[in-house]
């Protein structure tokens, strides 16, 4: 088979960059779409220097024309595309009643509609080609819905639902959806919340996680190669899903509350150790 080609949204940093590195390791041609031009150019140059065909394209997943331009560029310059990873995402946290409707619009436009746009545009190409793989990055939050994350939960659940639908409607196209829990990435950089303490807490969950983006990327890469549909790349994601499946609602909610208390205790211990 000739060299395979992939497009990754949000590929200039964090999990997207880790995925770009993993595909580059396997000698895929990697096209990165991102809003951060400085980071994107650096990543593309680094991959090129390692002997990998790589390209950065400025891409705002809120704009259909940006994603279409990326798809057109790949067809014109690389003769097509074999996989797309709809990875770009942001987060909003805080009580439902305090979350601004403008923040709902923002997160839905990126986390959900960005995936819809990417799947629609690249799905059309894949159908014409007769092959292709759509990989949508959701979250364990799309399966297990924690409090204070209503808008994030809704968008990620929507990505899971969309992926399940595409799996049936696109029988000639491979579809995967990835649902990890917190791991070391840069999600906290764009986090919005009316409560600064929540921003700090989410940031702490991300930065203090022992699970790295590169380790998750390796698991996801192998699962995609095996054409797995629902990819739960870490133990916490699998545990959360299993608990929800086997426990009655009352016990599940009790388990969630206990987990939140454990997180708060860990946070208190960390703060005490620093003081």
Description:
The protein is of the alpha/beta class and 275 residues long. It has one domain: NAD(P)-binding Rossmann-like Domain (Rossmann fold, 3-Layer(aba) Sandwich), CATH 3.40.50. The protein contains nine helices and nine strands. It has helices spanning 14-25, 37-49, 64-78, 101-129, 150-169, 196-207, 213-225, 235-246, 249-274; strands at residues 5-9, 29-34, 54-58, 83-86, 92-93, 133-137, 174-178, 192-193, 230-231. The strands form two sheets. It has a seven-stranded parallel β-sheet with strand order 3-2-1-4-6-7-9, with helices on both faces. Helix 2 links the parallel strand 2 and strand 3 (54-58). It is globular, with a radius of gyration of 19 Å. 42% of the residues are buried.
Describe the structure in brief.
Helices cover 55% and strands 13% of the residues. By secondary structure, it is α/β, with parallel strands linked by helices. Helix 5 links the parallel strand 6 (133-137) and strand 7 (174-178).
């Amino acid at each position: 088979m000739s060299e395979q080609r992939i497009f990754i949204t949000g590929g200039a940093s964090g999990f997207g960059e880790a995925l770009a590195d993993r595909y580059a390791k396997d000698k895929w041609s990697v096209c990165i779409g991102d809003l951060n031009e400085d980071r994107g150019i650096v990543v593309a140059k680094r991959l090129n220097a390692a002997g990998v065909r790589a390209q950065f394209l400025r891409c705002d997943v809120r704009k259909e024309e940006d994603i279409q331009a990326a798809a057109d560029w790949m067809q014109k310059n690389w003769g097509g595309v074999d996989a797309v990873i709809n990875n770009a995402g942001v987060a909003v946290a805080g009580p439902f009643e305090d979350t601004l409707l403008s923040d709902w619009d923002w997160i839905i436009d990126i986390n959900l509609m960005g995936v819809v746009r990417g799947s629609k545009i690249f799905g059309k190409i894949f159908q014409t080609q007769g092959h292709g793989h759509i990989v949508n990055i959701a979250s364990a939050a799309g399966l297990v819905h924690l409090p204070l994350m209503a808008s994030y939960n809704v968008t990620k659940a929507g990505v899971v639902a969309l992926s399940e639908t595409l799996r049936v409607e696109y029988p000639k196209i491979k579809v995967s959806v990835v649902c990890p829990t917190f791991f070391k990435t840069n999600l906290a950089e764009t986090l919005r919340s009316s409560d600064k303490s929540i921003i700090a807490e989410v940031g702490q969950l991300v930065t203090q996680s022992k699970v790295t983006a590169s380790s998750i990327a390796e698991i996801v890469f192998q699962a995609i190669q095996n054409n797995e549909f629902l990819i739960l790349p870490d133990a916490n994601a699998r545990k959360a899903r299993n608990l929800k499946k086997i426990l009655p609602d009352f016990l599940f909610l009790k388990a969630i509350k206990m987990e939140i208390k454990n997180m708060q205790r860990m946070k208190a211990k960390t703060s005490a150790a620093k003081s």
